[in-house]
Amino acid sequence: MSRIPRPDRTLPAPAAAAVAVVLGVGVTAALDLALLWWAALIIGVAAAFAFVAWSGPLVPDERRAGADGTKEQGTTLHTTLVVPTALVLAVVSGLLSAWFLDLSLIEPVAAALGALVGSAVAFTLFHRLSAMLALSFAAVLAAGVIAIGVTAAVLFFSGIPPLPTFARMIEYGTRPNSLVKIINDGTTYYLAAVAVAIGFKMKLFNIGVDGQYRLAALLAAAVGGYVVLPPVLSQIVVIATAVAVGGAWAGIAGYLKVARGVSEVISTIMLNAIATGITAYLLSTDRLAVEISTNNIGTPPMPESSWVPGIPAGFLGSEQEIFGFVLLAVAVGIGYWVMLNRTRFGFELRATGQSQSAAEASGVNVKKMVFLSMLFSGMVAGLVGLPQLLGSSHYYALDFPTGIGFIGIAIALLGRNHPVGIVFAALFWSFLNQAAGILPFDGIPQEIAVISQATIVLTVVVVYEVVHRWGRRYQQQQIGNQLGATAESTTEPAQAVPSGTASEDGSADGGGDTAPGSDGKRDGEAQ
Fold it and tell me: What residue numbers bound the domain in which 420 lies?
């Protein structure tokens, strides 16, 4: 492809992106008349990517910034890893978009729109994807392949055919009602993972998210059930109660950490046990609970003014509703990203997590950062139970979901504590849970999903760490090479021998080349 002649001029980035999109959509629409939609889309996105790769050198360099200032275009790692990874991600993005749109649109339109998304992603990733991020994607892909292999081996040696089992899970997990369930559960998992990730950024292990969200949900449900307020005010009061309770419960561990040096792991585990005892004590008909059914008690059902309206899922082909709380989860993710990358607090948090001694030497109050990190982690943890509370059950009872805090730890590790990575990890985890629900009807143990979840978390942590260390070494070598090349280019003019001889006062005898009126001196000063 590089042998195809290119014009001797630059191509503006918007024009290159527009041509790639038009090419991808056009090829897909034309081939869709003779091929299956997914085959036409793959070829269309690949054609768009081929144009992007061909026109890459024509796009100005400022549109192709490398990671950490390194020049990655043309390097071996960029050619062998970044470019194939960008192609695969572009094709996958197009296929997923087309499949999702096909639930509510006709197939040709969905395929064309999927090609549009895939072509746009192809242009963006080719010019923006760094080697370190590509290595991260490669690590996740490798971990996924290993997890699938381990699960298939377990199924095979158990006498269960792996391929039909996987096909059955995918078929059930992509049904309209299953998609709604995956999104709703993923919302809860996402909030739990963000709460854990805030602590991880400070090298703090908040293992007490489970106790924090259960105690917060109980007291928030009690307030919503006993205090009747107008619609918007009632929802605000319930959410504020949950946030305050979760933050206060995690703040106890933060205070013990900074004031007495107690490990947050030990204190949060103990606080989990205490929260369980307090919940059991308060959830009694003599205190906060009332009888919900014959075998169940819970807080009084909240009035409809406290509910968060759901989002109709007709575009997915389902009659169920998506939790309206998903919008607040999106806001939490955006706030988490802004806090980490656009605020002084986020910078100090990351700096303290990298090295407390260095941060303290730079004037950062480390104890304050530790306490605030635990406080904010607990505040987000207080929101974990609200999607279920305000969107479905409307009361806290004995059958309220438990163990979500520990799932959040696994999802935070799987998503590498990144707000976008956690989204995909939460949806993937929820998909495995939902897809495994059909296995008992086929006589297959439902624990297969647990094996896959545990294996992929373990392999992602190990593989990512190995790949990340190798990538850092490679990046350091690239920076060293560039610094060496820059130093050589800087010293070359100074090493050149002038045509005249320099005098002691810095003037030069130009051998008759002096400018008129300069009194024997060259124009300008020697640098």
Answer: 176-427
